Amino acid sequence: MSDSDDHDEDHEYQSFEFESDYEDEYFDNQSENSSSSTRSHNERVSPSKTSTSFNEWTLPKFILTVFLDKYQKLKDSKLGGCTDDDLLILLHYKRWQADEVINDFFDNPKKLFEQAGLPVPPQKSANHLKSTTSFDCSVCCESYKQVMVYELSCSHRYCLFCYHHYIYNELSTGKLIHCIQPDCALTIPHGDIDKIFDIVEHDSSIIKITKPLNENRLLVASAKIFVDSQSTYKWCPAPDCKGFTELVSSATFDEATLDYKDISIIPIVRCAESHEFCFSCNYENHLPCPCWVVKKWIKKCQDDSETINWIDANTSACPNCLSSIEKNGGCNHMTCKKCHHEFCWVCLGNWSEHNNSYYKCNKFEQDMSEIEMKKSKSRLTLQRYLHFYKRFTIHESSMQGDLKVLKQINNVAVMYLESRRKDSSVTSLAWSDIQFLPDAIRALSNGRKTLKWTYCFAYYLMDSNFQEIFESNQDYLNRTVEDLSEIFEKITTTSTKGDSDIVKLIMKNKTKIINLSNTISLRQKTLIDGAYHNLKEGLMKFDA
Amino acid sequence: MAALPKRIIKETERLVSDPVPGITATPLEENLRYFEVTIDGPSSSPYAGGVFQLELYLPDDYPMCAPKVRFLTKIYHPNIDKLGRICLDVLKDNWSPALQIRTILLSIQALLGAPNPDDPLANDVAEDWKKDEKKAIEVAKEWTVRFAKAKLEE
């Protein structure tokens, strides 16, 4: 690091300190920065006691490691007379247990081949995928002048369209697929399945580009079924995400005996695309809330929210019977259809008290009768819920906005690199110079996610001094998140104006962005750890 | 409704021109995928002498998926439940597009001749069948007379 750089850095720190009121955080940040400058900002924030370890998977990677690794080993061991297609079928049939294949092969190869649907040696597989003339397919009963047909060594021949449709249906089972003929047990090799699909779906017989084996349709279908059936695997719940995660430390994760009231055992995991989610309830990372609170909240929101929001925005309750009334026209002299109570729409006071002095709704010193108390109480409960719910949804929708920014920021990053390259004073340039931008967005998004769930947390929390501490932590996090969000807002709105402006803006704010995203991660951790600690010690309790 | 696949037309033609002995299948005029079916009880079974009515429907995906078949006549059989639904492998997992309406109906006829109480659909019937087969067969005969013959005489 050169002297001038150092100076720059100092200057930025000062401006940062000056512009925002994070004095208390400033020193923390410095020490934190020195140790974590290389650490990514989107590091998993979770209670320190959680001991879940997990593997991130994608289907091709999974097929390669779990299925095809055995295939490779078996290929090396050279089982007498087996082709590669045969091996794959044998392994698939034995559920990828290579040992069983080897044992059975040396025990009774004839039986093994028969069971797996392979022609018994010394007979070789003779599968044909070819074009033929004047063919009557016995499944679709069409008579073709020229058509592609497929047959296994049994010579049961059907047109490719029927085979395609048949295989398409059978794929859902993830099991080996046999000849169409009902009493014929011969198995269609994995490679042929892809070939048939390529030809039929691309409407051409000269497709040469075949998928790699770890994207084979049958293997993919089989892997999906496998993942579905194992309780130690779960799909990432993020929209359009194809990743899934395996929980490894199953000793600490026993579904049956778990008490999800303890926040310390919430198994927050990450998928291959860096989405965090809860392995137990298959929802996004909902820390600091325990799963059971999340479940309750979601149910409540589904039951009430939309309707209540609408009712709240568009109706008033009859002051007498509390029926919801939508005013769709007419004057302010209302008569409730249900209880025939007459009242003023503006002040909701008794109409009779208006004494014909229409719309002068300045009467406010009504005595609080018992009914009034009850009414205001129920209104208060509703308002309390809406208060939390509104903030919960605001952060949810902001998170979606962040995702959009993340997409835009890649263009911005390229722009930034371009302009730095042109600048002759900059000698070395790497992608990592700009990495802080997507990292910061992720930190922002994660911070928001935690913030979102704090409102669910707070809704169910019982009043106590510790609740106030929680709320101030929440407030701190909120402010940092908003500050960073504002910077990005500026960057993305400037990005339409021109390259030089935006690069200047990023340069000016670089240190600020890094510091803010560090602060977010730090405050997020403080909040979650604090919540964990206080819940565990019984200092905070939920009002269930 | 989409045009009827050639396969269904051919099968229907053959069912009419070359009927299976003891089995009739007639498509409805207004829905050619819906068949009214009758199956004669196999002579060596407790269902002998009865004529059982069934309905058969060919789903959109036929012949890639199995036809839907159901008994309309009440029958006392361990693999056929109160609603007439049938537990038969070729109607489910073992369906193959190379099978046909006629082969399916033959399989059902065979099922009448060989009840399988070890893979039951109607649990109560299967239990009776296993406990006292003789008595169960008597009941099956009685039901055949009551439901599958009475209709015939009407």
Automatic annotation (TrEMBL), chain A:
It catalyses: [E2 ubiquitin-conjugating enzyme]-S-ubiquitinyl-L-cysteine + [acceptor protein]-L-lysine = [E2 ubiquitin-conjugating enzyme]-L-cysteine + [acceptor protein]-N(6)-ubiquitinyl-L-lysine. The keyword Zinc applies. InterPro entries: Ariadne, E3_UB_ligase_RBR, IBR_dom, Rcat_RBR_TRIAD1, TRIAD_supradom, Znf_RING, Znf_RING/FYVE/PHD, Znf_RING_CS. Residues 133-365, 137-179, 318-361 form the RING-type domain. Keywords: Metal-binding, Repeat, Transferase, Ubl conjugation pathway, Zinc, Zinc-finger. PROSITE patterns: TRIAD (PS51873), ZF_RING_1 (PS00518), ZF_RING_2 (PS50089). PANTHER family: RBR FAMILY RING FINGER AND IBR DOMAIN-CONTAINING (PTHR11685). This is RBR-type E3 ubiquitin transferase. The lineage of its organism: Eukaryota, Fungi, Dikarya, Ascomycota, Saccharomycotina.
From TrEMBL, chain B:
The active site is at C87. PROSITE patterns: UBC_1, UBC_2. InterPro entries: UBC (IPR000608), UBQ-conjugating_AS (IPR023313), UBQ-conjugating_enzyme/RWD (IPR016135). It comes from the Eukaryota. GO terms for molecular function: ATP binding; ubiquitin conjugating enzyme activity. Gene3D superfamilies: Ubiquitin Conjugating Enzyme. Its EC number is 2.3.2.23. The keyword Nucleotide-binding applies. The keyword ATP-binding applies. Keywords: ATP-binding, Nucleotide-binding, Transferase, Ubl conjugation pathway. SMART domains: UBCc. Pfam families: UQ_con. Belongs to the ubiquitin-conjugating enzyme family. This is E2 ubiquitin-conjugating enzyme.
